[in-house]
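TEACHING EXERCISE
Course module: macromolecular assemblies
Task: Read the component lines below, then compare them to the predicted structure of the full complex.
Student: A.B.
Group: 4
Components provided:
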Amino acid sequence: MERDRSAPVVGLDVPAEVGMPVEEIATPALIIELDQFEKNVKTLKDFIETHGVRLRAHAKTHKSADVARYQMSQGGACGVCCQKVSEAQALVSAGINDVLVSNQVVDKRQIRHLAEMAKSARVMVCVDDADNVDDLARAAQAADVEIGCLVEIDVGAGRCGVRPGREAAVLAGRIAQARGLKFAGLQAYQGSAQHKAEFETRKALIGEAVRQVRETVDLLAAEGLGCEIVAGAGTGTFALEAQSGLYNELQCGSYVFMDADYQRILDENGEPVSMFGNSLFIVTSVMTSTLNATMINASGTIHGLFVISKAGWMKLNTRQIAANTPMNPRIWFLRFGNANTSRSTKNANGSIRAR
Ligand SMILES: Cc1ncc(COP(=O)(O)O)c(C=O)c1O
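Instructor-supplied answer key:
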């Protein structure tokens, strides 16, 4: 007999429901620790307000319209970035109205989708190729929209982008001439600096990026092309870009959940950077510990996995654990009862609340 799916069954359709104690979550489940999540969002909001820069939060971290909406309504974000047109579409159709695809979009169909999207949201994209500018312009004209373009310059990451200076200026001029496109500024993301552990290494790499951005901005200004947006920066280096006086739109993504590697990078005093904390976890259960290893019901390469057991929260260092993580885990927002208890000994005494 067909089961009535209008009333989801906890443990089958959903891992938990609002009001349930944390230890009753059907595992594995991807959860957000709400206190820390909100703290991370507020910390970066305070930072951008103090430093007079914008935040365009990178949605690659969460790929969630709910989180993006929260970053925009509560976290000071002017919009979001994403890496693919399909991600942008998901966000725009959920009501996010300002999206930068922080990548090159070269497939003609994807370009058409990008132009369609610009009917209901502010849409921008990165470019590093003259033919691509022409393709984007044609699609924008056909859809009767405007697509904002950031000229991406390679400031050391060796990933995408034209050379700073003259090459960038030539491309910017082509965009400015193209009907349907708007030259919106520069994309200058130094990705290879983000996870460098030593502060001085990150500082030197961003210092060099800033020098190249300055050269390009000055050249563009001399040609009458102002940069409304100078974009870049991630969770590892954003303070350096913000202090440059040049970058005005930060693209931090990981800050909202954080990851284990970012917690290993050091500040100027050689101490771990402590601005943000982990807020995303997989809750899972110990299935057996009869062999030398403890097996839990999750999979993938996971750093700092937290397991709920009868004793409370327990942190495992286990990696590459096989079994049955669902392909599309639901995200649950949790608020824990006692904020003063350290996570490794905390009893699972929170309860689940909806966002
Ligand atoms: C273009 C761009 N901007 C910003 C970010 C965000 O970096 P993070 O997650 O380190 O904050 C990324 C990350 O890959 C990126 O590719």
